[in-house]
């Protein structure tokens, strides 16, 4: 899905699905700062890829001024990014963000200052990162991960885990295998095998 209009429609639908306060797509489009930040990001990213670096940074800085959300034009962001409230969110130059990711206010996808080249995190699909969380360095956050508010993540987190704390530790992992069981009436159903770490 590369058509900018299709991406925008998808982003609006995802916002409607994720935010119970959203009444209609027009309200989201006109009044939600994250959607403006994402639109500006997509324009600046296109310019950045074509080596119009100054113009790309100018658009991203103007967007930051008006929305409080800073997305470097070099970052790679998939469809359906939802930034709730948004103020203080920072996404660094070499960050990669998958599809249907939810970030709350104050989240940083940043660097540690010790790395060169790839300096920022790679975030998988369907990830939720709580308010004030800091994801730092060229680490991998797997698909389906949940990161607790104000956590500081400095190491990779495998898929389908929940991590909290400073530094973040995995407190829950949904294992991949599916177990099939029968209920009291003989009906068969599938449940996910879950384990606490």
Q: In words, what does this structure look like?
A:
By secondary structure, this protein is of the alpha/beta class. The chain has four helices and 16 strands. The protein has helices at residues 4-18, 25-31, 33-49, 53-67; strands spanning 70-71, 76-77, 82-84, 90-91, 96-97, 102-104, 108-110, 122-123, 128-129, 134-136, 140-141, 146-147, 152-153, 161-164, 169-182, 188-195. The strands form three sheets. It has a seven-stranded mixed sheet with strand order 3-6-9-12-14-15-16. The protein is globular.
Give a short overview.
The protein is an alpha/beta fold and 197 residues long. It has four helices and 16 strands.
The low-confidence parts are: 189-197
Class per helix and strand makeup: alpha/beta
User: What fraction of the residues are assigned to beta strands by DSSP?
Assistant: 25-35%
**C-alpha geometry:** globular
Could you state the order of secondary-structure elements as H and E?
Answer: HHHHEEEEEEEEEEEEEEEE
> Number of helical segments?
4
In round numbers, the mean pLDDT is 87
Can you give keywords for this protein?
single chain; globular; five-stranded parallel beta sheet; 27% helix
